[in-house]
Amino acid sequence: MKQLDSKALRNAFGSYMTGVTVITTMTDDGTPVGFTANSFTSVSLEPPLLLVCPAKSLSSFEVFANCKHFAVNILSEDQQNISNIFAGSKEDRFSQVEWQTDAQGNPIIDGALTHFSCKTERNLEAGDHHILIGEVLDFSAREGLGLGYASGGYFSLGLEREAAEISSQQKQVNVGVIIEHNGKVLLSQNDGKAALPITTTDDHSSAVSTIRQFLINNGIDAELGAVFSIYESTKNNNSYIFYRAFAESADTQGLGEYVAIDSLAKQDFASPAMAQMMTRYAIESKNGFYGVYVGQEEHGKVH
Ligand SMILES: Cc1cc2nc3c(=O)[nH]c(=O)nc-3n(C[C@H](O)[C@H](O)[C@H](O)COP(=O)(O)O)c2cc1C
Fold first, then answer.
1. How do residues 198-217 score in pLDDT, each as one tens digit?
2. In terms of domains, do 145 and 12 share one?
3. Which residues pair with 195 in a beta bridge?
4. Ligand 1, from 11, 35, 63, 97: best to mutate by most atoms within 8 Å of Cβ?
5. For the whole model, what pTM was predicted?
6. What's the domain range around 174?
7. Fewer CB near the terminus (10 Å): N or C of the chain?
């Protein structure tokens, strides 16, 4: 059999866009356990079945391999921090979130879009994972949009749609990109002022396809991430959309130079809006939770 490159395979699997869930259960001694999972799939309506794949490497694997009940919490678009807690935190994960228990005693996370309370129907070994099949005993769902995940990055469908709507309503939208490489971001210097790489959409192109093409045209090998900021200038009525991107190499292709995120505050930016945005970027990159600013140049809200 052909030897597959496992890193490339992981990336290929990751190109499948999913939502994000937290899978929870209770140990026999009453300790809540949980992990972030995007391997969740609905399986059958009659009987009502779903599945999720816990890795054998999970510290809680033995608990999930033997659990009689478990719950699936589908995260809403504002619960990226909860996904990060249940994917990485070594502290007590449940002390960092609000939660209740369902009728089977499974932890149910407050604010999640949907909860499924399940009885374990089957637990199958599958390579370095198990396939945990649950029969849905009960569920609750509310209106809203789920958190998205693709190619190693989160996205919010609501905000992506907002960006798409702005770029379809307006003839021209300014689309910029914060390209990150090794703790630095790419900035150009014009007349002593720092600026981000930026371009404009033409009549028929969307913001995301414009910025993707801009990166290709400039020979920047970068993976495009989520929207970081959407704002309108009250002075010239122009709309601006900024995306995040992650470059593989330090090659700037003549677009400017990479500047350490730690020293962004010292930069003299071309506009106060850009300065504000990059100050927020520096703060958020420290804690790893990125919000999305939506509003006008001076007044808006970070989601
Ligand atoms: C978006 C996302 C999806 C994930 N999906 C899965 C999954 O389906 N199965 C799994 O075992 N781990 C998955 N993980 C990784 C686990 O959440 C992570 O390894 C786990 O929380 C580590 O827990 P531990 O420190 O208790 O071992 C995912 C992580 C993220 C960020």
1. 999 887 678 888 998 999 99
2. yes
3. 188
4. 35
5. 0.71
6. 162-292
7. N
CATH code assigned at 233: 3.90.79.10
Considering the domain architecture, whether residues 124 and 178 belong to the same structural domain is answered as no
Which protein residue's CA is at the shortest distance from atom 31 of ligand 1?
87
Show the tokens assigned to 188.
């150009």
* Closest by CA position to 43, among listed 147, 152, 116: 116
Residues 174 and 99 in one domain: no
CA of 163 relative to ligand 1 center, distance in Å? 30
Residues 6+ apart with CB under 8 A from 167: 173, 175, 201, 205, 206, 207, 210, 239, 241
Q: Which two tokens stand for residue 108?
A: 């149910």
Q: How many domains does the chain have?
A: 2
If asked whether residues 180 and 49 sit together in one domain, one would say no
Q: Determine the pLDDT at residue 235.
A: 77
Taking the C-alpha atoms of residue 180 and residue 259, their distance in angstroms, rounded to an integer, is 9
| pLDDT at 207 (0 to 100) | 85
72 lines ligand 1 (CB under 6 A): no
- For the chain, residues with pLDDT lower than 50 are none
89 Cα nearest atom in ligand 1:
25
